[in-house]
Amino acid sequence: MDFINIIDYIGTFAFAISGIRLAAAKNFDWFGAYVVGFVTAVGGGTLRDVMLEVTPFWMEQASYIIITGLALLFVIIFRRYVVRLDNTFFIFDAVGIALFTVVGVEKSMEAGFPVWVNIIMGTITGAAGGMFRDIFINEVPLIFRKEIYAMACLAGGVVYYVCRWAGLPAIAVQIVAAASVILIRVLSVYFKVSLPSLKSIDISGHRDVKEDRE
Amino acid sequence: MDFINIIDYIGTFAFAISGIRLAAAKNFDWFGAYVVGFVTAVGGGTLRDVMLEVTPFWMEQASYIIITGLALLFVIIFRRYVVRLDNTFFIFDAVGIALFTVVGVEKSMEAGFPVWVNIIMGTITGAAGGMFRDIFINEVPLIFRKEIYAMACLAGGVVYYVCRWAGLPAIAVQIVAAASVILIRVLSVYFKVSLPSLKSIDISGHRDVKEDRE
Amino acid sequence: MDFINIIDYIGTFAFAISGIRLAAAKNFDWFGAYVVGFVTAVGGGTLRDVMLEVTPFWMEQASYIIITGLALLFVIIFRRYVVRLDNTFFIFDAVGIALFTVVGVEKSMEAGFPVWVNIIMGTITGAAGGMFRDIFINEVPLIFRKEIYAMACLAGGVVYYVCRWAGLPAIAVQIVAAASVILIRVLSVYFKVSLPSLKSIDISGHRDVKEDRE
Q1: In chain A, where are the structural domains located?
Q2: Whose CA is closest to C181, among C97, C118, C104, C119?
Q3: What ipTM was predicted for this assembly?
């Protein structure tokens, strides 16, 4: 469907930009920046497809390879304007994770898995790319420490099935689920809401790590 | 089988606790801690299943998702007692890697692979979760630097086949192999035995890294 | 074919040595060094095979397990000479990535994928092992920051198809493609050529990272 495709490509572009920018900040060369952008954009869906035992989606059409290339070009050409476009990219990114979540839920459902697996697959599709990005650039994954990110995908998956069970038509289910991901994500950033952390009390005295960890 | 299931769940619980605690020490939020706990518990078996080309085991029953949730609840509620329970968790963890190793060997064997692949798959099932955990929290994997961990799994796999070739009944093979993993693990920690490292002489002058590495 | 096998094994040996040395520098124990060496040697091909939905190649013959063991023995026994052999290992490594690239392109082609997927699979086969190695030892992947490495594999894949389309016989296609990988790699190191980086202008102000990143 055309509209879904356009949003899919916009999401891919926004994800790739986020990977390329962080790679650039770590002094990666162009090729490395491209790889990190690509992994950010397709990593979640690839992990999902490997676990669903189907061919990774980006191997079936060249669009994702090309869009990542356009994202790299965009960063190279417009580098001095990129920071100013932060809010635009943030919205693109939120729309991207929302759509990726819905796509992930549906692909897993079509493969015949139960509801709880589908919700997890939706969350992985939306959130795992950002996690791989942070592992590549050797940072502690940010999506687990600031604002609500993966949890927004999970909530979107739950909303998907609530709407479905309520008997909404397929297209309405998709729209409401995606909108709830975007809403949670945007509100959490706007109001600086994060999930609580467990840090407050030291519980890291695992015998395996007592001596070695900071 | 009931008894095996109980041990499997206890091992999963212990693995999840270890991931959640280390994630908490790194300031991950609850959701991030859950993810790290889950990856620690099921990561090894998932890598095994992907390489054996079967559906990852945790997608076939919701138990592992639920047990990781219980582990998170446990850490949140009993956080001030968690450190005191170190020795208990250490035993759970040792029992867990022992059982995971045996399960991994047998699953690979059922898939028709040769003995040496099965032993490797057992080792991956027992030890790779802890490796993924350390990559997620951005630490050099601890299991390769302190005490005997992955090597205990490997030894357990070898013992498994020695017993099998000696004609022991299936249940005895499982018990002796698992017991040998536990024994090696416990003794190595008790006597602070580690494998030798290669550090003593500088051999890191690879031309690719000469200038960049510390 | 015998000649291909010999080069394959030499490449595996060189890759394993590079992983073992970097692991040793990070204080990994012998077993950990073995694992890092093995992942460096077979990681790229394993990722390729998982995405192509075939059994990872190293599970079909024990050679790669054994060669990695020999590499570990070699480093342990000849540790004081290892640094002096840098240039030899560099050539082995270049030959290794060249052959791995050609093998990866052909395996993907046999699985029926289009040309652009095959070139990517060739690049992953040649370059991803070094990337996994750096993630394991908790470093920012070096192959994306210094000299031309993954790009040499990509270029080799393109040369492969140019030669093929030009009607060269299969063996000539393989030789010319592999030679071009070696040539690009060697020349880039000799003349200290790197791809440009994006660092020069700060573009890392992504809203997700503004506060947390250095």
Answers
A1: 2-190
A2: C97
A3: 0.85
